[in-house]
Amino acid sequence: MSQYPVLYAGQRITAGLLSSMLPLEAYKGSDTTRTSTTTTTDDPDLVLTLEGNATYYVEIFIHYAAASTELLKTHWTVPSGATGFRSAWGPTQTVATSDPAGDGRWGIHGFTTDVQYGTRSNANFLTMAKETGNVVTSSSGGTLALKWAQNTAGATGTRVAAGSYMRAKRIL
Fold first, then answer.
1. Which residues pair with residue 117 across a beta bridge?
2. Does the reported pTM lie above 0.85?
3. Mean pLDDT of successive 10-residue segments in the chain (172 residues)?
4. How far apart (Å, rounded) are the C-alpha atoms in residues 136 and 153?
């Protein structure tokens, strides 16, 4: 089984070696609201830089709120030439109720496939979605970001809230 980084007997322990063992993390400290747009763009906070020739396990936990007519859609920005997939968990796009228990989506998708999520029927009530996946970068690294927008454009606004986070752990 491969591991990153590879440790050898007698190897000198350095700050760089120890740092390479830590996951990359991005935390959303304040809300971002998007109105009247279905064009997905990178979240200003949920962005990381990945190294080239590497494999990462990624998880994104999204706190969001949306009106039942607008909803949320996501996909990922990945480095050029990257391969892999992402999984999506959250309320299915047909959910628009104050208690969305039981109706969910669980699927595997390409990085640029739009995934639509339902809501709690009110743009003030937060709900959540989680996306995970593997990203295998090519010889050049680059940006990993959560891209998102409203599923249907509307003036109420879809909000990705403070407390959302992204984590990428290099595994190879």
1. 72
2. yes
3. 82 91 96 98 98 97 95 97 97 77 84 94 88 97 98 96 98 93
4. 33
Beta pairing partners, 57: 134, 169
Q: 């992204």: which residue's tokens? A: 166
Peptide bond into 23 cis (omega under 30): no
In 10 A of CB 108, how many CB atoms? Answer: 10
Length of the chain as a residue count: 172
DSSP string for 55-108: EEEEEEEEEEE--TTT-EEEEEE--TT-EEEEEEEEE-TT-BSS--TT-EEEEE
SS3 content of the chain, % helix, strand, coil (to 5): 5, 45, 50
Structure tokens of 136? 């295998």
